[in-house]
Amino acid sequence: MPYPAGHRTEVKAKIVDSARRLFNRHGFDTVSVDQIMAGAGLTRGGFYSYFDSKSDLYTEVLACFFTDPEWKNSWEGVDIDLKSHDFGAQVIRAYLSRQHFEDVENSCPMVALPTDVTRSNSKARCAFENVFAAMVTLLERNMRSRRKDRHSIAQAAAALCIGGMVVARAIETRSRADALRDACMATAFELCGWHCAKAANHSRRRRIGIAPNSPAHRAQP
Known about the structure:
The chain is mostly helical.
C-alpha cells in the first residue's frame, strides 16, 4: 500500500528536527545516526533513503527561519511576524530573548553550532553563510537608518545577536549573562536606528511574547 502524499516530506522533517535538537544539545560529533532516528521515532534503516550521510543532514539542520519558511520561527512565548512593519526589531528582541537563551534544543543553529561549522566541510560553511546573509538582509531591509553603510551596520547587528547569545550561554553567572544580552540588544537597536522609536510599548511586548520585567523587556529602548 503506497504512502499518502507528503509522507516523505513529513518523515524528512522529523529527521531534521530530531538532528537539530540533538546537535544543539550535544554537538555534531557525539550524536549518532541511531540517536537521530530514535529521536524521530524511526529506525536507522530509513535514514539513507533521505540523506547520503550525517554530514549531508547537517547542512539541512543549519537552516533557520531566515531561510526556511517551514522552520519553527519562534521559541516558546516569542513569535516573529516577518510581514510586520517592525520585523527587524522583533528579530533582535527574539534572538536575544530569555526564551531563546533557555531553549537550547531549539536554538538558531548560528548560535548552537558555529564551532562545529568551522570544523566541517565547505558545504556546511556555505549553508551557515547563507543563513547569516539572510539575517543581515532582513535587518537591513527594515532598518530606519538611511546611511550608506546600512549593510555593514546590519552585519554588525546580526553578529551582536549571534555572538551575544553564544557568550551569554558560556557565562556561569545568570545575572551577568542577562546583562550581556541586554547590552547587546540595546546596542543592536541603536545601530539599526530603532533607539528613538517607541517600539517596545506594552501591546507590542504582548504581541511578540516578551514578559514584563524579563531581560528582553528591560532592554527595550
